[in-house]
Design brief:
By secondary structure, the protein is mainly alpha-helical. It has 18 helices and two strands. The two termini are 25 Å apart.
Length: 495
């Protein structure tokens, strides 16, 4: 139930909308979304996660992608001002995080922004948002898994003196045939997820502690090689470079909303979800800026390459000893595995919600009665992401993920404004301050950063949207639960 709200209206059966436009705009009442919470095909998700575990899920999904994986690509775009790029990306994420926090506390369900759009803007936009989340979560799992293989090779080289051959550790286009480590880390995450949310959260908490310790160790050692001269030309490529790097680094913030996908497995979602989202974003942004500042201080920006193992290389340079690079590589192996685990978790829960609504096949909503996990969903998604990670280069994946994320975040900012207008009586456990100003600013930031992405990224995004719309009109629109009179519900018209 919603905390301290007005008495919930009972969703009422109604004839399915007759007009084509009406079918596209049909909305799912908040009360119905919440009432269905946890229920799947043949079983139910289990409420076992507290605020600390939810915060660790968000940190686990976020911390690591930008620093351990994408930093080497962002620095050549912005120079020393990459720290400013992180701040800009973090501010953009903050505005959207405020909107996520309000909606997560009001509509605590597994679908995240997909469900928020369904309740406020109608089924078509909900589908578009959900399709973007499939891109955001699924592709980012693959992108991060690619970086995991780089650090695994650093670790193996520093411990036993061998590395996985390029043919088996890089995808086609990056000098390899098949990225086996990327596939392996996704399959390992799958094994944890099949054990249930509580067990996965426990493993993730341990991995998050290790990754924070590894980053703090880097800062301590990297500061020993800090050269203030590396900051003399702070913005060599201008604000355009800072903006371009910020758009790429926004990939680093995609995980903060992962806690919102746990709405049906949280013990007290109305209270804990907003807190977990905001706390995780603050912690992650502070660490990102600190590590980026130390990294550029320890190595001149022109010396950065697009290697995913940048931090380990810097530690080697500073100390002159491969041991410390090996230690960081070990931390990164665990850290990036944590990102894969938690983002994969978010992907499965979004598809769970979409399947329950009838927009994707029912198999994604089947819950194993013993573990409380959507087993078939987890296996299918893991295999898809694993193969994607093994076959696609990282850079293309990171930018494709960023545009899907920004689009979904933009819709969340709009959803807050719409729900405030259509349901002003509904009590919120968290409210975006200065609404609708801040949600509008958040929407504007998302659009601005989307405009900073390359033309090829837009083309990939456009193709992805066309495929999604074809699937919706040929499958989802007809099979939607709201298309059946028995489950159709009356919603308050937009005022």
């Amino acid at each position: 139930m919603l905390d301290h709200g007005a008495p919930p209206r009972t969703p009422q059966a109604a004839p399915a909308p007759a007009g084509f436009g009406a079918r596209l705009m049909r909305r799912k009442p908040v009360e119905l979304l919440v009432a269905e919470g946890g229920q799947g095909e043949g079983g139910a998700l289990r409420r076992s996660l507290g605020m600390w575990q939810l915060t660790m899920i968000s940190i686990g999904a976020t911390l690591g992608t930008g620093i351990f994986v994408v930093l080497g690509e962002a620095v050549p775009k912005a120079g020393p001002a990459v720290t400013l790029s992180f701040v800009i990306a973090g501010i953009t994420a903050l505005f959207s995080a405020l909107s996520y926090a309000e909606l997560a506390g009001t509509i605590p369900v597994a679908g995240s922004s997909y469900s928020y759009a369904y309740a406020t803007m109608g089924e078509l936009l909900a589908w578009v948002c959900g399709w973007c989340l499939v891109l955001e979560y699924g592709v980012s799992v693959a992108a991060v898994a690619v970086g995991w293989g780089e650090y695994l090779n650093e670790l193996l080289d520093g411990t036993i003196g061998v590395t996985i051959p390029d043919a088996l550790s890089a995808p086609p286009g990056d000098g390899g045939i098949f990225n086996l480590p990327a596939l392996i880390v996704v399959l390992l995450a799958m094994v944890f997820l099949l054990g249930g949310a509580k067990e996965s959260a426990r493993a993730n908490t341990i991995m998050v502690a290790v990754k924070i310790a590894a980053l703090l160790l880097f800062c301590v050692i990297g500061f020993m090689g800090f050269k203030s001269g590396n900051y003399e030309d702070f913005m060599p490529l201008g604000m355009a470079g800072v903006s371009a790097a910020g758009a790429t680094l926004f990939f680093s913030y995609i995980g903060f909303d992962a806690a919102s996908t746990a709405g049906e497995e949280a013990k007290n979602p109305q209270r804990d979800l907003p807190r977990a989202i905001m706390l995780s974003l603050i912690i992650v942004t502070a660490l990102y800026v600190l590590v980026a500042a130390v990294a550029v201080g320890a190595r001149k920006w022109t010396g950065f390459t697009d290697s995913e193992a940048t931090l380990a290389a810097i530690m080697k340079d500073v100390t002159g000893q491969p041991f410390w690079g090996t230690v960081l590589a070990a931390g990164a192996v665990i850290a990036i595995a944590s990102v894969v685990l938690t983002v994969l978790y978010g992907q499965t829960r979004v598809l769970f919600a979409m399947s329950r609504d009838g927009l994707v096949p029912k198999v994604f909503a089947k819950v194993h009665p013993k573990t409380g996990a959507p087993r078939a969903n987890t296996i299918i998604v893991s295999l898809f992401c694993g193969v994607l990670a093994a076959a696609i280069p990282l850079g293309q994946l990171a930018d494709a993920t960023s545009i899907g994320t920004l689009f979904a975040f933009a819709l969340v900012n709009i959803a807050v404004i719409v729900l405030r207008r259509t349901r002003p009586d509904m009590k919120r456990t968290f409210r975006v301050p200065l609404s609708p100003v801040l949600p509008v600013v958040g929407f504007g930031f998302c659009v601005w950063m989307m405009g900073s992405l390359s033309a090829i990224t837009w083309i990939v995004f456009g193709v992805w949207m066309v495929v999604g719309l074809v699937f919706y009109f040929s499958y989802g629109m007809r099979r939607s639960r709201l298309a059946r009179p028995a489950t159709e519900s009356v919603d308050t018209p937009v005022s």
